[in-house]
Amino acid sequence: MPTPPMSDELLRETVQVWRDHNCRATEAAQAIGINPKTFDSRLQKARARGFLLSDGARGVVEMAGLSGAEARGGWLHSYDADGKKVGATYWKAEEVSPDDLISQVRDAFLDLPAAPVVPAPLYNAENLVTAYPIADAHVGLMAWGRETGEDYNTKIAVNRMKSLVASCVAASPPSRTAVILSTGDLTHADDYTSQTPRSKQVLDTDTRHFKTLDLTIHGLNTSVELALQKHMRVIVRILPGNHDPHAYLAVMFAMAERWRDNPRVEVQKVPGEFYVERFGSVLIAAHHGDKAKAERIVMYLADAYPKLWGETLHRYLFTGHLHHHKSADIGGVQWEQLRAMTAKDAYAVAHAYSARAQLQAITYDMERGEVSRVKVGA
Fold first, then answer.
1. pLDDT value for 108
2. Are 173 and 130 a contacting pair, CB within 8 Å?
3. How far apart are CA 252 and CA 343, in angstroms?
4. Which domains does the chain have, with CATH numbers?
5. Is pTM beyond 0.90 here?
6. pLDDT the model gives residue 1
7. CB of 169 within 8 A of CB of 229?
8. Which of 100, 231, 91 is nearest to 165 (CA)?
9. Distance, CA of 193 to CA of 61 (rounded, Å)
10. Residue 24: CA atoms inside 13 Å, Cβ hemisphere, count?
11. Three-state SS across 6-46?
């Protein structure tokens, strides 16, 4: 027997409790004694029906035949009895500030159970560091094989991530330190609207953003567990991309809570879009690559990190974003634009993009620089 739809009265009560608790879903759920996931589900339904809008805005939305999720803002025009326009007022749907978003994400993962301890490997080369840069995984992308050449969805993407990381870990030297580095666009969409936040490009997605985040976190957690079997220490860094400038926060905070009690795992909760770290005479840096060209990023690194720059002889910069491989020596830095992990979507095929999916593991000697590289194609 199908579950009856939630009543408008219940959804309005959900919104009121949420607002009474400063828009903190976890606290609101605890106050009325229900599971936070159930409360979040009710809140999403309330948003879709427009109950998070003001009364005036909701009236306009209903007259236009839109849902609350579709309507983000617009002009409300006033007319006199003769049909002459006498005024206009602009309204905008409620937005969540970055600080509120971070607070809500943090609260959602406070009670997440810590990960079990993975036995440490018996041997490690202390002078070696291995980087596993994951570029443009686009988890949540939906592609139809007859149109694009291969099927791709959330489950396929996460399985690909786990398989490629496992192959790279197995073939890499037993370095003491591993860096699992997401260079951006870990998820294909930033939220349930299935659009890129800045350009509003409509995306082919697997539609359920909750599922996308859940499986993305699972894929990265499995990657960490695989790395812990070979490496004594694992550093995790997740950078934002143009597809996921906010969604990456959920993954980052979830990972930090998952591994908070494991001394062998460091999930870096660092704001900003750059990763820069020194390992002996080696400097490893990364940026998604969507906001500046490689030459400009190299000059920025020299200016913003002069101490690290002066203390290192071997400097490496990773970017992603454009999905195809490119590399160059730029002012004392070896820059590499990484191949994407994702399959091609309809947009890529329509624009004749032909890059192949790949994941790499690059091992560095802390005095001599790069000494080993593993490449695994999808």
1. 58
2. yes
3. 24
4. 8-99 (no CATH), 118-377 (3.60.21.10)
5. no
6. 47
7. yes
8. 231
9. 17
10. 14
11. CCHHHHHHHHHHHHHCCCCHHHHHHHHCCCHHHHHHHHHHH
Q: What is the pLDDT of residue 140?
A: 97
3-state SS record for the chain: CCCCCCCHHHHHHHHHHHHHCCCCHHHHHHHHCCCHHHHHHHHHHHHHCCCCCCHHHHHHHHHHCCCCCCCCEEEEEEECCCCCEEEEEEEECCCCCHHHHHHHHHHHCCCCCCCCCCCCCCCCEEEEEEEEEECCCCECECECHHHHCCCECHHHHHHHHHHHHHHHHHHCCCEEEEEEEECCCCECCCCCCCECCCCCCECCECCCHHHHHHHHHHHHHHHHHHHHCCCCEEEEEECCCCCCCCHHHHHHHHHHHHCCCCCCEEECCCCCCCEEEEECCEEEEECCCCCCCHHHHHHHHHHHCHHHHHHCCEEEEEECCCCCCEEEEECCEEEEECCCCCCCCHHHHHCCCCCCCEEEEEEEECCCEEEEEEEEEC
How far apart CA 181 and CA 336 sit, in angstroms, is 14
Burial (CB count <10 Å: 0-12, 13-18, 19+), residue 177: buried
Q: How many Å is the maximal CA-CA distance in the chain?
A: 86
Nearest alpha-carbon partner for 105 in 333, 269, 266, 290 = 269
Q: Tokens 């009265």 sit at which residue? A: 9
- Alpha carbon distance 152, 143 (integer Å): 5
- Could you state, in chain order, the average pLDDT of each consecutive group of 10 residues for the chain (378 residues)? 71 85 82 84 78 60 50 58 65 55 59 73 94 98 95 97 98 97 98 92 92 96 97 98 97 95 96 97 98 97 97 98 97 98 94 93 98 96
**C-alpha–C-alpha distance, residues 28 and 38, integer Å:** 11
Rounded to whole angstroms, the Cα distance separating 286 from 369 reads: 16
The whole-number pLDDT of residue 94 equals 54
How far, in Å, CA of 16 to CA of 2, rounded?
A: 27
Handedness of CA 320, 273, 143, 359 (dihedral sign): positive
